[in-house]
């Protein structure tokens, strides 16, 4: 008899590497908090509620929205109120310094004339005149000459108010015209909101893709584990049959055939234990991905990985990507923000017009100095204009910088458009090839099962050699594993397309789902 030449190492590689291709390692299986059997939709719902990456992205959106509201606050008047009690160590004063007032020499001329003079009664003694008498008095013109004179004025200490003062006041400021500055800031902050929302959407899409991939990876790990167990059972049954035929001494099976069968059976047994560990790791990884404790285990409800051939066309996928892809949305938001930056920079060419006012009331027990009724309460309103004259070309260069950023981002948008189309085209072609692989491996799997069944029957009747039956059984396991992996790869490729397109296209990829 010929020795078995089947490369056992290939079988080992297929059954051990496939389930771990896209599944992160588990963080331990020594302790568990119990197992849960969940469907894919339940896993996605829990992931959206408990995975910590989502709250972080949502808080980023909240920050951007708060910044946008801060920018909008510039359209409203700013009103403030103040109140307080001031206590000074001494009364404030104002000292007027000593000085001298000089009066130059001058001549004063008094013209002559007449005046009516009233002489009261008894002016010159009792009875004379007996009554008041009015009489005209004439006086001649004269000139009075004075010399230069200097009058000293001493310093004066003027008290302004008492040390203690209570006051309340209010003021408002309102920018009436800014040349588009506030609108520019608003557009910049609104662009930042859109960017944050695009990032949050990317987080959700990536989380969804990870959950789908790992969920079906756990399903695949369980399928391969079960395949390993089934293959081991068949190999053990064949080994017993080989041993029985060998001991009967019919001559169709010798000791070498029995030992070959024994070697292959024990090799398959050594593969089953790692397959069980792979399944446990995949279930723990699924629990971790959806946000559960590292001690938790999630068992997928699905028994097999679904296969859903794609029936759409590439143009529709690309069009959808241009509408919903997070990178595309982020570039559109960036363009809006840079347009706002340009508007803000261009506002430097225009004047600024503002209105401000103030209302106050003070209480001070002093009634002089500055503490008078006119100063203790009052109001004021000012209308101001600031006109830019020359700023060293600062505004011009700021506008040029913003325009350059806009043009740069537009070029990146063109590159992204081509890149998205190219990547989707490549993935679309891979999807078609994957469907052909699934169909081919399915046909091979059917043929391998029929071959294994016929070979086993022939072996029982002594028409087939031991090497042939062992090869047929291992070949069936290999082809089945390859088919299961091909179906998983097809599903994972669909999930990647969903992630790139930015919108769930599961309804298109699987109309019957």
Fold and architecture overview:
The protein has 513 residues and is of the alpha+beta class. It has a domain at 8-79 and 187-351 and 392-509: Up-down Bundle (Outer membrane efflux proteins (OEP)). Helix content is 56%, strand content 19%. The protein is built from eleven helices and 14 strands. The strands form six sheets. It has a four-stranded antiparallel β-sheet. Helix 7 packs antiparallel against helix 9 (394-460).
Helicity range: 55-70%
Distance between the termini: 52 Å
Compressed to H and E, one letter per element, the order equals HEHHEEEEEEEEEEHHEHHEHEHHH
Strand order of the largest sheet: 2-11-13-14
The pLDDT mean sits at 84
The CATH superfamily of the domain at 8-79 and 187-351 and 392-509 bears the name: Outer membrane efflux proteins (OEP)
3D shape: rod-shaped
SS field, number of helical segments: 11
If you consult CATH, what is the topology of the domain at 8-79 and 187-351 and 392-509? Outer membrane efflux proteins (OEP)
Query: Percent of residues in beta strands?
Result: 15-25%
CATH architecture of the domain at 8-79 and 187-351 and 392-509: Up-down Bundle
Q: What is the C-alpha radius of gyration, as a whole number of Å?
A: 50 Å
Q: Give the low-confidence spans.
A: 1-32, 505-513
Number of strand segments: 14
Q: The biggest beta sheet, please? A: 4 strands, antiparallel
Structural class: alpha+beta
